[in-house]
Design brief:
Blueprint (H helix, E strand, L loop, with lengths): L1 E7 L5 E4 L1 H11 L3 E7 L5 E7 L3 H14 L13 H10 L2 E7 L2 E2 L5 E7 L5 E10 L1
Antiparallel strand pairs: 1-8, 2-7, 3-5, 3-8, 4-7, 5-6
Length: 132
């Protein structure tokens, strides 16, 4: 089963907690045990698992990514979004989460974040459930 989420981002750089939406897909799949594969088909956006209890963690991650990869830095890419490409590469484009008893097997403080680095845009997240 493959499902697709549509996400509208509102800022140039933004982390959106999509854990609940992914869990809805897992629940509707009626797969009790398996793997949930989550894929972002974009070159300037990514995905990550991190703490979702304190919103300051996301703010800190964005702040530090902006230090490591500044928006402007004599990049050669003519589109002007090289920083977004680099940050997306650092985050990665896919995750695999174990599903147990119809639930994502995440740690107590973990959430799944869609990471926008070239927004605002309309984005997609592809989710595939694998039973097993």
């Amino acid at each position: 089963m493959i499902r697709q989420l549509s996400i509208r981002t509102n800022s140039q750089t933004e982390f959106i907690d999509i854990t609940g939406k992914i869990q809805e897909i897992v629940g509707s799949s009626q797969i009790s045990e398996g793997i949930c594969c989550i894929y972002v088909p974009h070159t300037t956006a990514g995905i990550t698992i991190n703490e979702n209890a304190d919103p300051d963690v996301v703010k800190d991650i964005i702040k530090e990514l902006n230090k490591i990869v500044p928006l402007t830095d004599s990049y050669l890419h003519r589109e002007g979004n090289s920083a977004a490409h680099i940050k997306a590469g650092l985050m990665g484009t896919s995750l695999h989460v174990i599903v147990d008893q119809g639930r994502l097997l995440l740690g107590t403080w973990q959430g799944i974040y869609f990471c926008e680095f070239d927004g605002p845009r309309n984005r997609k997240v592809v989710v595939k459930m694998i039973e097993g």
